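#structure-requests
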Amino acid sequence: MLSIIIPTFNEAQNVQEIIKRTQDTLNPLNIDYEILIVDDASGDGTADRAAKSLGTSGKVIRREGVSRSLSLSVLDGITQARGEMIVVMDADGSHPPELIPQFVKEIGNDHDLVIASRYCKGGGSSGFPLIRKLGSRFACLIGSIATPIKDNTSGFFCIKKDVLEGVTLTPKGFKIGLEVFVKAKVKSFKEIPYIFVNRKIGKSKLKANTVWQYFCQVNELSRHKRK
């Protein structure tokens, strides 16, 4: 089974479309899948809209009475995922679910981890100002201290669940991908190109302390790598 984990916070304007695109991509294929919408106590009705759209293809995990965190939302999804393969992706349309069949194919080619990459040949981004692009490049350069993955800040990836067994994930901020890339018991990975598209609807969830959290995360992960 394939589990698609989509963390949400105030994505009522986007969540139904991303669910439909995912369903339309996977329904024609011979793939047993579930979509897990992990909602961080949204105040705009995201969870209810998602539940209506999912039908029997998945469920909504409602995180209430806990600290809001994209990374912890993903971890909650991983805990409840029934699939042997796990896809993590955003709800805002920046991650194309049409790429998921290629993820599955590459996992079938004996890779433990497949990353949608802006920085391998054929990849890129659309709709971003130059300063955001430079910032992303710089973040990946810093992240290379801990992992050889080129797009090490990617939040769109597929991983075999068994390589996470026995692994303690303690992410800071929202870069759950980097945490997974460094700590998971991965023997083989592959980056596949995609075009990251800036969200068209809604606001970015980036906060002022994001950069500091990221530096702290890389520092801890680099120490973990050296152990």
